[in-house]
Each structure stands twice: as structure tokens, then as C-alpha cells.
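User: I would dearly like some help making sense of a protein record. I have put the entry right below:
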Amino acid sequence: MNTTNIIKKKVLIIDDNTGILFVLQEALTLRGYDVFVSETFAGVDSIEKSAPDLIYLDISLVGKDGREVAQELKNSKGTKNIPIIIVTAYPNADELAKAAGADDYLTKPFELEHLWKMTAKYTSGHFLGA
């Protein structure tokens, strides 16, 4: 019998809305991702240690703007190649994500199919960073 060890891709979700955290975590867990959630940004060092394959990041965080967090992560040697997807309800999400240095954006409300396709795109190994 041939068994293959499958390494799950790790996704970090940073959002101060517990409802959004729950929905994203459940939806991505259903698809076999290892999902970690945080209501606050714990710092670059913490993210370097956990080494996620993808980060979903809310713009409106308590204490620190998500755009600043994205820029901080993209300016750090240890995290600059981790794809960041901005999650927002702002109508100009594309401009906000680009200005923050994020790799993409997901607008609220979102369809689960879109979430799954976007997650697969950025965790497939074909993404090389910005």
C-alpha cells in the first residue's frame, strides 16, 4: 500500500470580527487547510515563526490599520514572500490592496467558491510573490 504524507497548507486570518474569523476558518478547514486565526496583529516575528502559506488580513483592525500591517510584512525579509489578501467591505478594495502592497483582495460579503479559488491560487506553489 502506497501512502503519501500530505502537508497541509497553513492559512493565517487576522480580523477583529469574530463572525468573519469563524466563517473563514470553517470554510477553509472544510477544504483541508490548516487555519490559524487572530483578532490582532501579533507582530512580524510571530508570523515568521508560524510561517503561514497565505494571510487573509482585514483592513480595519483595532489598534493598527491593516494597510500598515501589510506594508510591515512586505518590508520584512522573513515575511515578504507570504501572499497577503486584504479582506474589506470598502468599495475601492483594489486600490487599497495595491497601496498596501497586498497581493490581492477579497470583498465582503464574499462567495465561498471565490474564497476557495483564491486560496488555492495563492497556496498552489505557483505564486512567486509581488
Remarks:
- The domain at 10-122 is CATH 3.40.50.2300 (Rossmann fold).
- Helices lie at 18-30, 44-50, 66-74, 93-100, 112-123.
- The mean pLDDT is 90.
